[in-house]
Amino acid sequence: MPLNRGAGDCASDPRETGDSGVAAESADTADERLRVNLLGPVEAGRGDSPLDLGPVRRQAVLAALVLRADTAVTQQRLLDDVWGDNPPGTGHRVLPSYVYALRRALDAPHTAPDRSLIRGVRGGYRFVPEGVHTDTAELAERAALARDARAAADLPAALEQLTTALALFRGEEPLSGLPGPLAEAERRRLAQQRRALHRQRVECLVDLGRHTEALDALDALAATASPTEPYDEPLAALRMRALYGSDRQAEALAAYRQTRDRLREELGVEPGEELRRIHQAVLRHDHRLLLGRPSATSSTPPDAPRTPVVPTRSGSAGPSRPTLNELPGDTACLVGREAELARLTAPAPPDAVSVAAVDGTAGVGKTALVVRAAWTLAAQHPDGCLFVDLHAYGGPHDRVSPQRALHRMLRALNGADDELPDGLDGLGGLDGLARPDAAAELGELVAAWRTATSGLRLLLVVDNVRAAQDVRPLIPAGPGSRVLVAGRQRLPGLDADVRLTVEPLGAGEAVGLLRHLLGADRADREPEAARELARRCGGLPLALRIAGARLQSRPTWTLTHLIGRMPDADRRLGELRAEDRSVESAFRVSYDQLCPDLQHAFRAVGHSPTSRFDALTPAAMLGRPRADAEDLLERLVDASLLQQPQPGRYRMHDLVRALAHRLAATRPAETTSARTAVLHLYTAAGRLASDWGPQ
């Protein structure tokens, strides 16, 4: 019986048309290679001859080794992968017998143990993939080639690679019938990858103008979709684009309404930004957005010149160096920031420099917001987009002074040190604030910067700012330029046209971010747990992303399990960490920047009985007049460690409050004094209420 080499998610096996990227090999060599296929029922063979892999547990051991090819896997790990919580009593004797049988099936006759495909290592085994074709490795390679082709705008090549990759899947699910936690987790992962490849293939079809094929592919995908498919917003957006490209605008709008209604009624959330953008484009007949762009290979003749010709700064046409663009990559998902984006990207006066100041607590998504806004505005600034990180919340050696920032930006505009204005080559190399001639050097750099930018329309993003005086020297002089400033500290000393405080996400938006991070299938299996996890993260994007990362790295964890690991606010801080990122450290940096009086006030607020209060309780705990306490609280608002829902009233985010409480617990005497003051205050308030009597 011939080995099944791929049933195909698409109409035919496109490998018959050739291979555009994967290394070719002769038919004889290909026939001799061992093949191990996991993207369906597990099978192995040489040429057309299948190999007997034995019972499903033995196949599961092989799959566990192949999935971790070239990695040592301990016997205990294999037992956990294949048997989970119910290993056989003779597990450490069963595994060697399974491996022995697999070696006999897979290795060529008379293969020495040290040349076997499954080699013994200390305490376990390692699968050596040299000379073996696995469909999972080909899948990864085809997907990478498709990504590269799409990045190069070679859509036909990307489509071919995606179609070939999908043809590797056989039957309804990978690792079909295999037992064990690893097989179950891999089935979910590969199913998500399969769906993502389908989505990318449909996107290529839409961008190539093959709308009927795209709709057919979407219909076929819907027929085998999971119960959460109606909530797949990217697929809904592609369906709308394909319908619009088929001159079926009314159906495209109906598809949007159907998806929106399902999201509202069943999940309690609104459509995301991308789907709403497609909806608006359909209403506006925005052909450019909806119908995509032609690929490089289909639109450019083979002998056409490749040198870009753009207007130069003098206005004449001619060859030009690439436009200066230092913007970081845009985040894949920015949820619930439509109103803020609209304010940051609103039209600005063409004859002036526009400045927008964005502030907010640590981890709330300020940088992601300004970067998305910058990419939206980039096309309006043909002379370049600059990005400067002042590292105001890093260590002393990380911080970037205005001198250093100006020096670097002048170099970026001019291209090399020898093109800087005379006398400025050596400036800015040190943090000039510590030098006696710092003011004079800063003045010279500012003058050079304003001269260099006076005729340019630039976009400048300045991130991690703590003081207005660090931003003012960096503002370009060219009319029509824009500056987007982001930092934790409010900057009343900066003349800004737009001031924006970024707040934590609302409940529906936070759940939407979790759905993006975990995949709709996983999040929607536990809708109540998703809402509770979003609540425990306080709508803070950093906390949500860390929680999502932990769940992604633990495919066997449920959302309910993670929630159970953070029963209170203090444990929550401990759980919300992943490698070098943690919510606690992000807030702690803000705390460490405070002066001693403000640090004391912050710790005192941690003893407040509620997360909402006025200045009276902190004043009692600090032993200060109410006016002095209110001044300290206002300065904590400026540092984005407190929120102010209305004048005279303050609110502390639950996770910030947990840090304040943890820090306060390190000062026992301070804690005793604060609690005694609160007790006296509340006792006095009770007596006063009793004296007045019922009113």
TrEMBL record:
- Biological processes, Gene Ontology terms: phosphorelay signal transduction system; regulation of DNA-templated transcription
KW Transcription regulation (keyword) present: yes
Which residues, as ranges, make up the DNA-binding region of this protein? 24-129
Q: Where is this region: Disordered?
A: 1-29, 292-328
Stored SMART domains: BTAD, Trans_reg_C
| PANTHER family hit by this protein | TRANSCRIPTIONAL REGULATOR REDD, TRANSCRIPTIONAL REGULATOR REDD-RELATED
What name has this protein been given in UniProt?
SARP family transcriptional regulator
Species whose genome carries this gene: Streptomyces alkaliterrae
